[in-house]
Amino acid sequence: MLFAEEFLHYVWKQRRFNQTHLMDCQGHSLNIVQPGLVNLDSGPDFSNAKIQIGGTLWAGNVEIHIKSSDWQRHNHHKDESYDSVILHVVWENDVDVFRTNGTLIPALTLKELIPESLINQYQYLKTNQNWIPCEKQISEIDSFTIQQWLHRVLIERLEYKSETVTALNQQLKGNWEETFYVTLAQSFGFKVNAQPFAMLAQALPQQILAKHKNNTLQIEALIFGQAGFLNDELLDAYPSQLKKEFQFLREKYKLNPLDKSVWKFSKLRPNNFPTIRLAQFAALVNASSHLFSKVLEANDTSTLKKLFENIPINDYWENHFQFDVVSTPSNKMVGDKSVDIILINAVAVVIFCYGRKSGNETQVNAAFKLIDQIKAEENTIVNGFRTLGIAATSAFDSQALIHLKNYYCDRKKCLYCSIGNKIFNL
Fold first, then answer.
1. Which residues face 50 on adjacent strands?
2. Cβ contact 107:25 at 8 Å
3. Which DSSP string corresponds to 70-83?
């Protein structure tokens, strides 16, 4: 049989094997009182197990392998931390194993104890090439299980995103206003230009911009100049003026601009060009002060949205997507969908992270409430789950489905998924 050790972990933890008249490989009766707790650190796989072997109750750890000879292959026979193992659980017991003091470790062989239907189900989920492994069975899973799991997955997604915010906050010595500023800038780059935007924000601290809040031209000059767009020969009056202004500010603050090549234009719609996003970001910076404090004080989603929408950008961009290139006039202000993405990827994440770090459950709950009040995203993942009967009614669902697909389904982590576990029990 072809399967990973993780399958035996699942079988042992869930006791998905025949436990009637169990015996170890030495012929002693065996009774599992407590299979133990999963050990996420180094050392044996399960800790604090209680196993009755031949009439004696043992307390200690459990190690799991496909073959018992893996014990030597992993050098456990030389590691005293494995002397606490009271039972070696294996698929096949090909050799006896011993502690460092030479005493034999009892072994339990699962080869004949696991239902064949469970093995077949596991192998099907691990080897099929469907869009998601369980797409042919997921319709049989009750909605309560799915919703409960999506709630857990959304928490996991916010925790995962918070790791980056936490690291950034530590780097910025606990300055949450600056942390929010960098995270917000990154969200303006969306997926393609997120990294250049983050680099820009870190190379252009908010404190510098704050000194020029009453001068729109200087704010725009700092942002476009530090982004690397004012190094070329420019013809139009507006970018030429920005360039002249930036030359003075660059020297004043000893700034080192990014290389313009870090910004990506390829395959983007013109409205998503980094030049337009930079213009929008400059407008937001110019129109806002103490933005993070205002975000924390907002009582509802509509109040939050007002902080980011309907902010006019420089008139120059009405008929331009890039400097010195005239285009058909169009509205370049941040659209509703873009505001929603910013709220999901920056605002909610920072609120959640701030709430967790400060122990403020009100802020943590506010992050969930915000995501739940935003419309569900439209993308291939959300549409794919919809065809399978799982519709996203808000960004709460769509964010959870994105995480589920990327971190569970695509990686075939069915054993760690509540939906997958339900399928194993069908």
1. 34, 59
2. yes
3. HHHHTTGGG-GGGT
Q: Write 274-277 long-range contacts (CB < 8 A, 24+).
A: 274/189, 274/193, 274/196, 274/197, 274/227, 275/224, 275/229, 275/317, 275/321, 275/322, 275/323, 276/317, 276/321, 276/332, 277/188, 277/189, 277/190, 277/193, 277/197
* Nearest Cα to Cα of residue 155 among 349, 419, 385: 349
pTM metric for this prediction: 0.89
* Burial grade of 388 (CB within 10 A; 0-12, 13-18, 19 or more): middle
Interacting residues of 371 by C-beta distance below 8 A, sequence separation 6+: 154, 344, 348, 394, 395, 396, 399
Backbone angles phi, psi at 14, to 5 degrees: -90, 0
DSSP label at 347?
A: I
Q: Measured between alpha carbons, how far is 364 from 3 in angstroms, rounded to an integer?
A: 40
Straight-line distance from the first to the last Cα atom of the chain, in angstroms, rounded to the nearest whole number: 21
Residue 299's pLDDT band (cuts 50, 70, 90): confident
Kindly state the tokens that stand for 211. Answer: 């000194």
C-alpha of 3 from chain center: 27
Q: How many CB atoms lie within 10 A of CB 359?
A: 8
The span from the CA of 193 to the CA of 186, in Å, is 8
**Which ranges in 25-142 belong to alpha helices (H)?**
70-73, 116-127
Cβ atoms of 198 and 182 closer than 8 Å: yes
How far apart are alpha carbons 290 and 210 in whole angstroms? 10
Q: Output the DSSP codes for 369-393.
A: HHHHTSPPP-SHHHHHHHHTT----
Q: Got the DSSP string for 249-297? A: HHHHHT--PPPGGGS--TT--GGG-HHHHHHHHHHHHHH-SSHHHHHHH
Q: Which residues pair with 30 in a beta bridge?
A: 53
The bridge status of strand 30-34 relative to strand 37-38 is: unpaired
Burial of 91 (0-12, 13-18, 19+ CB in 10 A): buried
pLDDT in tens, 394-424: 999 999 999 999 999 999 999 999 999 999 9
Q: Each residue of 136-169: pLDDT tens digit?
A: 999 999 999 999 999 999 999 999 999 999 999 9
The SS3 of residue 229 is coil
CB 176 within 8 A of CB 169: yes
